[in-house]
Design brief:
The chain is of the alpha/beta class. It is built from 18 helices and 21 strands. The structure holds iron/sulfur cluster. The site of iron/sulfur cluster has 15 residues, from helix 8, helix 11 and helix 15. Iron/sulfur cluster binds next to helix 8, helix 11 and helix 15.
Length: about 525
């Protein structure tokens, strides 16, 4: 499947003889800044670090700005950023705070600028106070009553030029990316901004290198989507269990540990009334508690029962299968070598099934140091979210040391882990860079990063588009994109939209297999 997402706003064709170049050199691929006032243009120029960057002063107000943009013959710049001061519209904004336009409106027409979150995050990483938000272009300096009215409409800042600049034919009809960075000056904008404008000008200057970094990341690119990616059947089931518990029993519903390892999922359920706790002693007597998809040790179940808590178990059936194998091997007198990562909740739950008989092995070195009561009675099990090749190294070392070792009845590394690792490998071999949507504590997501790196392609784990460092993209024309089994599909869409703010994006999906696994819900949350 291939789909092209055009950049919604673009710029630039021909050459740029009248941009404000310090040395009069012809325009080169790089950053072009439109700044309305001389003082703003000067602040931006002083912040530049790259010879190819240019500032064009456009003049104050919509009429001058439009004429300046129309008269320009824009050069071969990678991207255009409108930079200048603005009136902050909400009480929490301070002089020097930066607003990156996610949408610019003149009251009649609105222009969406995808990727504003990405640029705002980069400015924050540079130590600046920045956020993405809507900017309103107005005809006159805004008065206090108008500020409140525009704020109520969801605008963060007001200026007098941006909508006119972006609507100019030379800008609107081009093919390259546009961004807007406006800095709040305490006394509004225009000549009067100077009184509160020192902080604003300092921020403009400091924002200039970030704008250059943004321009360096601008290019047409291909996104290779790994398939399958994102939610697995166990994660979908666990989330649905919490949603149904909230619906059937009302908030609050307590959840022991994160229901799945994803900050977005947890934040969303928290907003809807779920309360995440680390241990059962944080749950009030008689309350409903959900056990997470990673499973719990029997001691936790006993504790919940002793406390009279109403338990709904969202343990993934594939994790329950590993627990059952641990109990069976221990019952039969085997020492169970559990291949997994220390401290992971799933590992703690499995270790708790037969603590006297189970030993955790993380590496081949652990295997070398392992001593068991009876080398003829050893079995192994695995955490469900391990890297396939890493786990094979450890199980190989075990088999060499204990040739009679028993294996689990079927693979413990689950279908979702296996499929996502194969899929990311397929895109990694073609990509310059791989982005993996997932949280840092998500084992299967971390394994996807490692899998890509082992295939020779740099990879980064990101919770969302705001975590993308623009420097990763400067040499990346082909970006592989996947998501861990606990990461919502919406994050993938959000990342593609953000990338489309840096130039046209062609999305192609590489499907290595399709999945149809589904798990039933526990009876406590089934609808009659
Ligand atoms: S990753 Fe595998 S074991 Fe974990 S919840 Fe998903 S299906 Fe279950």
């Amino acid at each position: 499947m291939t789909e092209t997402i055009p950049q919604p706003r673009s710029v630039l064709d021909g050459t740029r003889p009248d941009a404000d170049s310090p040395d009069g050199a012809p325009a080169d691929a790089g950053l072009l800044v439109f700044a309305p006032l001389r003082i703003e243009a000067s602040a931006v120029r002083r912040g530049f670090t790259r010879p190819a960057s240019r500032v064009q002063r456009t003049g104050m107000g919509a009429t001058r700005a439009r004429k300046s943009a129309e008269d320009s013959h824009l050069g071969s710049f990678s991207g255009l950023v409108v930079m200048g001061t603005a009136a902050g519209l909400t009480a929490d904004l301070r002089p020097g705070d930066l607003i990156v336009g996610s949408e610019v409106s003149d009251g009649e027409t609105s222009i969406a600028l995808p990727g504003a979150d990405l640029l705002a995050a980069e400015l924050r990483r540079a130590g600046l106070n920045a956020r993405a938000g809507k900017i309103r272009t107005v005809g006159k300096l805004v008065r206090p009553a108008q500020r409140a009215e525009l704020a109520a409409q969801g605008f963060l800042a007001a200026d007098m030029e941006t909508a006119a600049l972006l609507a100019a034919p030379s800008v609107a009809a081009g093919g390259r990316p546009v961004a807007v960075i406006r800095v709040v000056s305490d006394s509004g904008f225009g000549p009067g901004m100077v009184s509160g404008g020192l902080a604003a000008l300092r921020s403009l200057r400091a924002a200039a290198p970030v704008a250059e970094k943004w321009a360096a990341a601008c290019r047409e690119r291909t996104v290779l989507l790994a398939g399958p990616r994102s939610f697995c059947a166990g994660v979908e089931r666990a989330i649905e269990i919490v949603e149904r518990a909230l619906e059937l029993r009302g908030a609050p519903v307590y959840v022991r540990k994160q229901i799945v390892h994803n900050t977005r999922v947890v934040a969303d359920l928290e907003e809807r009334g779920a309360v995440f706790v680390d241990e059962l002693d944080e749950v009030p007597d008689g309350a409903t508690v959900v056990f997470s998809a990673h499973g719990v040790a029997p001691a936790v179940r006993t504790d919940a029962s002793d406390r009279g808590l109403s338990v709904i178990d969202a343990t993934c059936p594939l994790v329950s299968k590993v627990h059952a194998e641990a109990r069976r091997f221990a019952r039969e007198g085997y020492t169970v070598a559990l291949i997994g990562h220390a401290g992971h909740e799933e590992v703690e739950g499995t270790l708790g099934e037969a603590p006297e008989s189970t030993v955790l092995v993380q590496t081949a070195q652990d295997v070398a140091e392992l001593s068991v009561p009876d080398p003829a009675k050893v079995a192994y099990l695995m955490q469900t979210t391990l890297a396939i090749d890493e786990a094979a190294d450890v199980s190989g070392a075990l088999r060499e040391k204990f040739p009679l070792m028993r294996a689990p009845g079927s693979d413990d590394i689950c279908y979702a882990t296996t499929n996502r690792q194969a899929a990311v490998r397929a895109v990694a071999t073609e990509a310059d860079l791989v982005l993996v949507a997932g949280s840092k504590n998500s084992s299967n997501s971390v394994r996807l990063v490692e899998r890509s790196e082992r295939a020779g392609t740099p990879a980064h784990l990101i919770d969302g588009a705001a975590d993308i460092d623009l420097s990763w993209l400067s040499d990346a024309s082909v970006v592989g994109l996947t998501a861990g089994a606990s990461a919502p599909p919406a994050v993938v869409s959000e990342i593609i939209t953000a990338l489309s703010g840096l130039g046209p994006v062609t999305v192609t999906e590489r499907v290595t297999t399709t999945e149809s696994v589904q798990f039933g819900l526990p009876r406590e949350v089934r609808r009659s």
